[in-house]
Design goal:
Blueprint: H1 19-28, E1 32-37, E2 43-48, E3 51-53, E4 58-63, H2 68-75, E5 78-84, E6 88-90, E7 95-108, H3 113-127, H4 132-142, E8 147-161
Antiparallel strand pairs: 1-2, 1-5, 3-4, 4-8, 5-7, 6-7, 7-8
Helix pairs in contact: 3-4
Length: 165
C-alpha cells in the first residue's frame, strides 16, 4: 500500500497524476534517481536500479558494502527518489510530454540476511525474469560483497503532462 500522497506543494495543479500512475512507475520504472544529502553538505544524487515491494511499502536498491551512498545515508537517512516514466520532447510545441513520481523516504541498511536475499530476488525478477535461477546462484556467491538499501516510503507526489499527438 502506498503511503499518503502529498501533492500540496505541486505548483501546476493541472499536472497532478494519480496513484495509478505512481504504482505503474514503481512497478515498471527502469531506474530511479536517488537524492541524498552529501557528507560535507550539498547534495549527492545517483541513478540506480530498484525493485518495489508493495507489501513492505519499500523500495530496494543494491550496492557495494562501502561507498559514498552509504556514507551519506549514515549521516542522514532521509532521501528522495524520483522515477521518470515515458517522456516525449515536442520541439514544434516547445514542450514535452512526461510522467514522474517523487518519493520521500527513510533509508535503512544493515538488514537481516533473509531480507537482503529477498530484495535481490525482487531485483532479479524485475530485471532478469528469464534468468532468476542463475541470478540467485550468482547472488549467493557474491552476497558477502553486496549491501541492500531499503527505502521506507513516507510520501509521494506524481506529475504528468499529456500532450495529444
Amino acid at each position: 500500500m502506498l503511503p499518503p500522497c502529498h501533492n500540496d506543494s505541486v505548483r501546476r495543479r493541472d499536472r497532478l497524476a494519480d496513484e495509478t500512475l505512481a504504482r505503474r512507475l514503481l512497478e515498471q520504472g527502469e531506474y530511479g534517481f536517488l537524492a541524498l544529502q552529501a557528507e560535507q553538505g550539498g547534495g549527492y544524487g545517483v541513478p540506480v536500479n530498484f525493485a518495489w515491494d508493495e507489501a513492505a511499502n519499500a523500495l530496494y536498491i543494491h550496492c557495494a558494502p562501502q561507498g559514498r551512498k552509504l556514507r551519506c545515508l549514515a549521516a542522514e537517512p532521509r532521501a528522495s527518489f524520483c522515477i521518470v516514466g515515458h517522456t516525449r520532447p515536442l520541439p514544434d510545441k516547445f514542450t514535452a510530454a512526461y510522467e514522474s513520481v517523487l518519493l520521500q523516504a527513510c533509508a535503512r541498511t544493515g538488514l537481516p540476511e533473509q531480507e537482503r536475499m529477498h530484495a535481490l530476488e525482487l531485483i532479479l525478477h524485475k530485471y532478469c525474469p528469464d534468468h532468476v535461477e542463475t541470478g540467485l546462484k550468482f547472488a549467493a556467491v557474491s552476497f558477502h560483497r553486496t549491501e541492500i538499501i531499503r527505502l521506507d516510503l513516507l510520501s509521494w507526489s506524481a506529475k504528468a503532462k499529456v500532450v495529444p499527438c
